[in-house]
Amino acid sequence: MSSRHCGLDPQSRSNNFFRQQLARNDLVAAPMAGISSAPFRLILREFFDGLAYTEMVSVEGVKRDNPFSTEYLDILPNDRPVVAQLFGGNPDSYQEAAEVATKYSNPDAFDINMGCPVKKVIKSGGGCALLRDLDRVRAIISSMRKGTTKPFSVKIRVGWDESTPVYNEILDIAQSEGADAIILHARTRSQMFGGRIHYEALADMAARATIPVIGNGDVTDVESYRRMKETGVDGVMIGRAMMHAPWVFKVIREGRDSQDYLAPIELYELIFRLYHKMQQHASANENKQGHYLNIIKKYAVWFSKGLPEAANFRAEIYKNSDEESFLNLMEFFKR
Ligand SMILES: Cc1cc2nc3c(=O)[nH]c(=O)nc-3n(C[C@H](O)[C@H](O)[C@H](O)COP(=O)(O)O)c2cc1C
């Protein structure tokens, strides 16, 4: 491999970051729009010391230093290591965005979103659109490599649909253009978030790759974690399971077979810690003021899953919009 990428040998860059991080903790917290915010990551940190991704943020917004975009790059104290995920279709923007992001919050690494099926992202030429535009994939990765000396990963899917797998082609491009790791959400764009996980694609990629491979899709417990590790991947990324149970990382690390991990009173305290962290963050970001009551209700509903009479709690929680009603209802966790 050539040394034209910022004078760093790609292998040593991987050794210095993704490989080392995954050797320490092979679980990875996924980028999730509307979920993996700075306050939420602080809650995650109570259970997890590994790599955590930010929610996706537009390269166009970041490169213009638009505060509505850069706030997604906020990193609060005690929340490291953090990988900032960028999306967008214009290769040149990545260089500038990486520079602005580095000045703004100095993330430990970057990621390029090549797997998001949402219309807004596809329209930008980014996300899943890239699965059908490999020239652009090359241009983006190359631009990113020129724009930063930080390590970066690319997050992809198997292909646009079952008949057009491109994961091996993108792996080859990623490796030759100097990316440091690759994440495979082992589904096609057509599958969206359902259907079978392509374990064979993960095994294929893990066998061919010289950079670390992080597998992703439907990992919720020790069993599904082990199933994915059997493919030979270096790391396992968890998305939806962490939004319902941020303690899932600890449960898996401890090899427990149950997610019945926290007592109701601990759930109660956790929800309030998250709420307070969101409010503190909101006071520094005025445009976020007022949103957090609705967001915390969502978590309270998720975290109540499995508790006796949780259905009643869920039915009541959205009936009133004032904080006092919410606080009264939260007594549910204390019984
Ligand atoms: C609500 C939601 C938001 C998501 N946001 C992002 C995102 O910002 N960037 C990204 O690459 N993937 C995003 N994803 C995809 C996840 O990172 C992950 O690839 C997918 O959910 C599969 O993993 P899982 O089965 O563990 O959830 C999102 C998924 C969901 C459900």
Secondary-structure topology with pairs:
Elements lengths: L9 H7 L1 H7 L2 E3 L8 H7 L6 E3 L3 E2 H5 L3 H4 L11 E6 L3 H15 L3 E6 L4 H5 L10 H14 L4 E6 L9 H11 L3 E5 L13 H10 L4 E4 L5 H8 L5 E4 L1 H5 L3 H6 L10 H21 L7 H12 L6 H8 L5 H7 L6
Parallel strand pairs: 1-2, 1-9, 2-4, 3-4, 4-5, 5-6, 6-7, 7-8, 8-9
Helix pairs in contact: 1-2, 3-14, 6-8, 8-9, 14-15
Flavin mononucleotide (FMN) binds next to helix 12.
Give an account of the 3D structure.
The chain has 335 residues and is of the alpha/beta class. The protein folds into two domains: 244 residues, TIM Barrel; 71 residues. The protein is built from 17 helices and nine strands. Strands 1-2-4-5-6-7-8-9 form an eight-stranded parallel barrel, surrounded by six helices. α3 links the parallel β1 and β2. α1 packs parallel to α2. It is globular, with a radius of gyration of 20 Å. The N and C termini lie far apart (61 Å).
Helical/strand content category: alpha/beta
Low-pLDDT windows of residues: 1-7
Tell me the major beta sheet. Answer: 8 strands, parallel, barrel
CATH homology-level superfamily of the largest domain: Aldolase class I
Considering DSSP H and I runs of 4 or more, what fraction of the residues is helical?
Answer: 40-55%
CATH topology of the largest domain: TIM Barrel
Radius of gyration based on Cα positions? 20 Å
Q: What is the domain total for the residues?
A: 2
Q: What is the correct CATH architecture of the largest domain?
A: Alpha-Beta Barrel
Order of helices and strands: HHEHEEHHEHEHHEHEHEHEHHHHHH
> Main sheet: which strands, in order across?
1-2-4-5-6-7-8-9
Q: Beta fraction of the residues?
A: 5-15%
Q: Which CATH class of the largest domain applies here? A: Alpha Beta
Shape: globular
Oligomer description: single chain
Q: What hetero molecules are in the model?
A: flavin mononucleotide
